[in-house]
Amino acid sequence: MHAYAKSISAKRSMAELIRAEGLTAGYGDAVVLDDVSLALDEGGSLAVLGRNGVGKTTLLLTLLGLTRLKRGRIAFHSDDITRLPTWRRAHAGLGWVPQERLMFASLTVEEHLTVVERPGGPWNLQRVYKLFPRLEERRRNFGNQLSGGEQQMLAIARALMTNPKLLLLDEPMEGLAPIIVQELVKVIGQIVRAGEFAVIVVEQHARLALGLTTQAIVLDRGCVVHRAASEALLADPATLDRLVAVA
Fold it and tell me: Mean pLDDT over all residues of the chain?
């Protein structure tokens, strides 16, 4: 915890971007998250870790307003967004890369990007194509004509085109070939290090996620059971395995 405290202290000069307090949420009558809190500064990065089914994706969906929130509060740039609809949270600066990728068979790669473009920020079509040259090569292909890796690139690029202040990445490496994972790790690492916006990464590959971020929380049964600097948790394999390894 000492390393975590030092990490927080070093970032106090940065303005806080998002704070969630006491989130208790789920679907219908089912409660998945129980009193979950987190905070992240502008340009910060957070890994959300845990075994399958502990509430990681539900946490992202709750930040987006896509679950049933029973208790808790979410502040974004100090504005209370707890009851805002999802589209207004997106306009405020929450970008989302969903686990399912959600490609549209009727849209080309370029249409996927231009339809969500929010002008005035650093991300535009030219910059996205520079980051993902393969997407420029496939710009006239439809969403269902892409490989899984290309779809994941497009899902990330689409979120960047909204010029987010906070990017939520849900299992970005799931089901991808190792060579594509390596490519995406490099790209996401570049994005995180640039610090143009904050990033929250949900990822089953715990060590990979910790290598991309500066802070981490671990969920178990819908609760936060551990907080640490990513570097410190990565250097403590016994604790990491105890927290996230499948029994």
Answer: 92
